[in-house]
Design a protein that fits this description.
GO terms for molecular function: ADP binding. The protein is α/β, with parallel strands linked by helices. The protein has 4 domains: 142 residues, no CATH class; 185 residues, no CATH class; 158 residues, Rossmann fold, CATH 3.40.50; 40 residues, no CATH class. The chain is built from 25 helices and 10 strands. 36% of the residues are buried. The C terminus is likely disordered.
Length: 566
């Protein structure tokens, strides 16, 4: 059900409460076992927030958390089995129609109650609940040696904004501009744009923008790509986000589409290469390869069509962003390398201010708040992404000295032993999320890189997964759940954990996830989630609760080779 421990426990307890209300315990012949299971969940819930935090740096706690999650997943499986048995006995088909195999008593609307009329099945479920209770008893006793902090509670749910507050939120264009600060990026944009439009050589040339993750490489590349002089100079302009798990056919088809061509649905690499060459040959072209991790996309897929097309007309360029210093050299082309520098403190402060729900310079006028803010800035190391994420966190807090001091002195800054995939600035923001919002954030990492996370798609997904719970004890009306899920989505945008690319008045936002943020989310959910990409073999690990099959271009999944029980 969920990867976040202190969100999973309340969900399981709610399901168990439903079983108790349907008087299943009496029919199972295990009087008190379900109540005991509820009590176990309630007592364990007190220290789950601390366990969830400590699992990242303590291997023994991590193993304990894994066993507890397995037990909770088993509890949800038991309830699911009851519903499936009820459907089977009713004769419900896969499409929801009814083909009754057994007469259902009139007015029977309780599937759990109905399925327990099968004594063999009832005994099986009863035994499983007893065994589950024993496991939870043992885990509770084992937890004593960890001395968990029972006072370390989970963060509260974000509240639903009023219409007035919602009207103050930034538009997509304002979000896009909120990453642009200082004269340096403007100067770099002008210089690199000028470089691109002055070459008249038939030889392909490469501009390589190099820097660490979150340094602003993509932001600079986007500024250059959108420069008026660049847009007017190049007839064909293609932007490709390069994934680490490269699919040659997928990459070629994407390039053809972005170049304004039609691939015709073919998977023939030779034909696709010829089609891309033809599209690039129609005029001077600029190809952006964003976030390249190796030269494979170039040497294996793009080099031939680009070099062939370059012979048709002069002045073509490839613009690359990468963390690798020697990538352009390995591409075997003439190149110019540009290193992205960290932000200076004043530019970082300006960037932080642009994330806050205030009028320009409102914080600047508060001397002590600025002093605290500059101390926070220093912890961001000049990385624009870090400043944006921390600024997004601050934007959800009251703009007071006490609240900013709390962020400055948060324990996340000083946690030792975090894996390198877990940036402390992103961890700080993650720690501030409620359990339910953490689930929604981690779920976004299941979407393939460069895939837009559409509000209209992901909101019903979160609801169907059970991530969205009614607030304030209200009933779970669909409209209210959708409203809460929509607020969660916008909260992730506000915190700069997902980045809006478009906004539509009816269908809502479209967002992407920064690669550094994605790496964080993938690491946090790696034991519960598995993304299977087409043409790439993988092993289905025990404990996986989410399985996402990334199958581009309408391909169907033909088979899974089962190497063990799912």
């Amino acid at each position: 059900m969920a990867a976040v421990l202190d969100a999973l426990a309340p969900y399981v307890k709610k399901l168990l409460t439903g079983m108790a209300e349907e008087e299943v315990s009496m029919l199972l012949g295990v009087s008190g076992e379900i109540t005991k299971l509820e009590d176990n969940m309630e007592s364990i819930k007190a220290f789950l927030a601390d366990a969830e935090r400590r699992r990242l740096t303590d291997l023994t706690v991590k193993k304990w958390v894994r066993k507890l999650k397995d037990a909770m997943y088993d509890a949800t499986d038991i309830i699911d089995l009851c519903h499936l048995e009820a459907d089977k006995r009713r004769g419900t088909t896969a499409d929801g129609s009814s083909s009754v195999k057994e007469k259902v008593p009139a007015g029977c609307f309780q599937p759990l109650l109905f399925c327990m009329r099968n004594p063999v099945f009832a005994h099986k479920i009863g035994s499983q609940i007893k065994e589950l209770n024993q496991r939870l008893d043992d885990l509770h006793k084992e937890a004593d040696r960890f001395k968990f902090n029972i006072g370390l509670g989970s963060n509260p749910e974000p509240r639903i904004l009023t219409d007035a507050e919602r009207s103050m939120q930034k538009t997509t264009s304002e979000f896009n501009e909120s990453a642009i600060v200082g004269d340096k990026i403007k100067q770099d944009t002008r210089e690199l744009a000028q470089l691109l439009i002055t070459s008249g050589s038939h030889n392909i040339k490469v501009v390589s923008i190099v820097g660490t993750g979150g340094m602003g490489k993509t932001t600079l590349a986007q500024k250059i790509f959108n420069e008026t002089s660049v847009q007017e100079h190049f007839k064909v302009k293609v932007w490709l986000s390069i994934t680490q798990h490269l699919d040659d056919v997928e990459l070629l088809r994407t390039a053809i589409e972005h170049a304004g061509g039609v691939h015709g649905g073919t998977h023939d690499k030779t034909l696709l290469t010829r089609t891309l060459t033809g599209r690039l040959s129609t005029g001077r072209f600029l190809l952006v390869l964003d976030d390249m991790w190796s030269e494979q996309a170039w040497s294996r897929v793009l080099s031939v069509p680009i070099r062939n097309a370059s012979q048709k007309q002069p002045g073509n360029w490839v613009l690359v962003t990468s963390r690798l210093e020697d990538l352009a050299l390995r591409m075997g082309a003439s190149f110019y390398q540009h290193h992205v520098s960290p932000l200076n403190e004043e530019d970082a402060w300006s960037l932080l201010n642009k994330q806050l729900p205030l009028q320009p310079n409102q914080v600047v006028g508060t001397d002590h708040l600025r002093d605290v803010g500059m101390k926070i800035i220093k912890k961001c190391g000049g990385l624009p992404l870090a400043v944006e994420v921390v600024g997004g966190l601050l934007s959800t807090k009251p703009q007071s000295e006490g609240d900013w001091e709390a962020v400055l002195h948060h324990r996340a800054w000083s946690v030792d032993g975090l894996p390198e995939e877990l940036d402390k600035r992103i961890y700080l923001s993650y720690e501030d999320l409620s359990p339910q919002l953490k689930q929604c954030f981690l779920y976004c990492s299941l979407f393939p890189k460069a895939t837009r996370i559409l509000e209209r798609n992901v909101v019903p997904m979160w609801i169907s997964e059970g991530f969205i719970q009614p607030q304030g004890g209200s009933s779970s009306h669909d409209d209210q759940l959708e409203e809460i899920a929509t607020e969660y989505y916008k909260e992730l945008i506000t915190r700069n954990l997902i980045e809006p690319t478009e906004e539509h008045p009816i269908t809502g936002y479209e967002c992407t996830m920064h690669d550094v943020v994605r790496s964080f989310a993938e690491y946090m959910s790696r034991e519960d989630s598995l993304v299977v990409r087409s043409r790439i073999a993988c092993k289905l690990l025990a404990g996986v609760a989410f399985l996402c099959v990334a199958c581009p271009w309408g391909r169907q999944v033909n088979s899974f080779q089962k190497n063990g029980p799912l």
